[in-house]
């Protein structure tokens, strides 16, 4: 059985779900007992505002929710709001400088207190605090003020026309937090609020009863959830850690768990697991790109912390465009796809591979060119002056530290890329770090992807929804992680380009879709082709695994993968 056959089967089974789903949801909350989820990257915190890690964002999405989400097609759908504001329904002003949200009536926090527009406004103040280091700061780009109209209505005002006003409070990256719980957690105090960060009071289908960082989260059904028949499960166990292979086996072979996230495994391994009969892989393409980030600053931990993350200390050799381009040219992306993902991956040169409106026709990187890479390094003046096989220039050797998270596919990629870089005269040291630490966002840890104490690092992330504006704005000057932001920030490689920032401003003012597409493609090309500070590798299909008895699952690549966990139920055998 091939992976393609398996995935087609999964789609077919999901197509039959609506009728069964309706019948299954006639009953009381908690009627189906326990559901067990396993993420091999263990959550370390329950808020996306203090972590850029997908595993933290998705765990938190079971508890705290936004005003609106993106469904499995990328369409905007209301959650805590009565409807999605638009110009047509009067929710977005004609001049595109404000958006008015209306909360549903009767919403309660899990502690039984009412949800109000004051909570929504506080959420913005929390993330926009200049000393807070909010990991989702780009979501609030251009917000000038927020006016509370009444307990259920508020208006977000932008400093200029905002053709895409759905940054704040939209999608799993921008959920609402309770003002009362986080009142003393503003600014630099945010990381210190352990109770709030580990056990947030929320509006989602579940609430935390026990949080063990980088291990297990125990949850129970939220007794104040807005639909009395949901969730179908009385309790939820969220297990973190291990590896993708163990997670896959736990669902598809042993049936110990009901859902496993991110099956980053070779196609033949997935197919073999599915023969266990307890579950099957499910897949969908979105905007998830495995890429290499080039560090534009000197990564030495010996430099003062306040200086390392700035252009005061440029990287000894990655500051040279020709070196960055040579490293990219040496990579065989189609082979990486074949080895790591099969039909669940596509080689790409783009950071934004979809939707089609925003995807550049950038294909130059798809053909490996080792000889061309060598010639480019020669041209840059890097030669092997002492015969040790490593190129050097002015006493600086092309010797780099290449880090990523611990995962079988990523370590296969690291080994292949190291070999190709060795062939062009670049020395490579490999490091892999536990994913829970690497993506954890702990400001005290030296091993996070934000700290970036390495020359290059490899990982994947994506943006929610179908508009890449906030995602591309991550690389604006000043968004780099630094001590003053508690080492939060989205500009991981410390990129700074005036033309890029000016185009971001133009994108924020542009409403006509085709023009927005042109600007987004230009932004993509600046960072992936013209400066090559980001080296895209694979457009990854999201592959997870679901138990054959778990109903209601709808894989979503545009929002949290757990976006509709309130609708999950146990199918009767």
Report on this structure.
The chain is of the alpha+beta class and 573 residues long. The chain has a domain of 186 residues: Dipeptide-binding Protein, domain 3, CATH 3.10.105. Helix content is 26%, strand content 20%. It contains 17 helices and 20 strands. Strands 1, 7, 8, 9, 10, 11, 12, 15, 16, 17 and 18 form an eleven-stranded mixed sheet that branches. Helix 7 packs parallel to helix 8, helix 10 packs antiparallel against helix 12 and helix 16 runs antiparallel to helix 17. The chain starts with a helix and ends with a strand. The N terminus is likely disordered.
CATH architecture of the domain at 286-461 and 532-541: Roll
The CATH first-level class of the domain at 286-461 and 532-541 comes to Alpha Beta
Shape: globular
In the CATH scheme, what's the topology name of the domain at 286-461 and 532-541? Dipeptide-binding Protein, domain 3
Average pLDDT score:
91
In terms of DSSP E residues, the strand content is: 15-25%
Can you give the helix content as a percent range? 25-40%
Radius of gyration: 23 Å
Detail the poorly predicted runs. 1-24
Distance between the termini: 24 Å
What's the CATH H-level superfamily name of the domain at 286-461 and 532-541? Answer: Dipeptide-binding Protein, Domain 3
Task: Outline the biggest β-sheet.
Answer: 11 strands, mixed
The number of distinct helices, counting runs of at least 4 residues, comes to: 17
Number of strands: 20
* Computed structural class: alpha+beta
